[in-house]
TrEMBL record:
SUPFAM superfamilies hit by this protein: Ribonuclease PH domain 2-like, Ribosomal protein S5 domain 2-like
GO molecular function annotation: mRNA 3'-UTR AU-rich region binding
Organism listed in the record: Phainopepla nitens
Keyword set, alphabetical order: Acetylation, Cytoplasm, Exosome, Nucleus, RNA-binding, rRNA processing
Identification of the protein by name: Exosome complex component RRP43
Length: 280
């Protein structure tokens, strides 16, 4: 009967659980799925990346590789480098996605990541400048979903942060005589990460009920979703709500409060992993 109901009337099936303050997968409404992160070449197998990380949020699996290249700064931003995020949802990660050019969801996710980078100031573009008007770093941040089961944004922001924390850039100078850049691969230094944004997503059921870290099925059944991004100081970096049911001020504040708590959990996890791979 339960299987039939889930197939024929999935929303009513979910409501039976929500009334008992739980979900079909056994989680409470405010409980996130098991979260794991692996950082660096030895874990992610991206030997060509300057920084990489793999994040699992339940069954949702996202990998991020950061590639650093040299380029001339833009004329109107002579003292700034570039950060170019790109989210890919290949057909292998879920049946709902097709091969070919980036779909609407992938494009929206890429724009969301770009907004998070800009609004949080996790990396200040001036820090990527090597020589004013002459040379700067370009960080290509490719985020690829390997297995999709909802909540792509939380996993993507986490993978991006973890990968950037892992980046080591070589020392680059410009030879005054030749005007050419010289790269010293033996002398590397980490990126300056000024803020640590963490995203926390919620699905809205029946206009009032909020569940954290929704699965793909929960996202499809929900009346809307909202993603809150906060930094380590508890400051609000971004609120992303692509349509759907409206939220009251009180409900939004509840989301922000819970997002701040989630930030502490994620930050603790990433610090633990980085400490474990740091040479003593």
């Amino acid at each position: 009967l339960s299987i039939c109901c889930r197939t024929v009337e999935p929303l009513e099936y979910y409501r039976r659980f929500l009334k008992e303050n739980c979900r079909p997968d056994g989680r409470e409404l405010g409980e996130c799925r098991t979260t794991t992160v692996n950082i660096g070449k030895c874990f992610c197998s991206i030997t060509t990346a300057d920084g990489s990380a793999l994040v699992k949020l339940g069954n949702t699996t996202v990998i991020c590789g950061v590639k650093a290249e040299l380029a001339a700064p833009a004329v109107d931003s002579a003292n700034k480098g570039y950060i170019v995020p790109n989210v890919e949802l290949p057909s292998l990660c879920a049946e709902r996605f097709r091969s070919g050019p980036p779909g609407e969801e992938a494009q929206a996710a890429s724009q969301f990541i770009a907004d998070v980078i800009e609004n949080s100031q996790m990396i200040v573009k001036e820090d990527l400048c090597i020589a004013n008007g002459k040379l700067a770093w370009v960080l290509y941040c490719d985020i690829i979903c390997l297995d999709y089961d909802g909540n792509l944004l939380d996993a993507s922001v986490f993978a991006l942060l973890a990968a950037l924390k892992n980046v080591q850039l070589p020392l680059v100078t410009i030879n005054e005589e030749t005007g050419l850049s010289e790269v010293n691969l033996k002398q590397k230094s980490p990126l300056t990460i000024r803020k640590h944004p963490v995203a926390t997503s919620f699905a809205i059921f029946d206009d009032t009920l909020l569940i954290v870290d929704p699965t793909a099925e929960e996202e499809d059944l929900a009346a809307g979703t909202v993603t809150i991004v906060t930094d380590e100081e508890g400051k609000l970096c971004s609120v992303h709500k692509p349509g759907g049911s409206p939220l009251t001020g009180a409900k939004l504040q509840d989301c922000i409060t819970r997002a701040i708590t989630r930030h502490k959990e994620v930050k603790k996890l990433i610090d633990k992993v980085i400490k474990s791979i740091t040479p003593k």
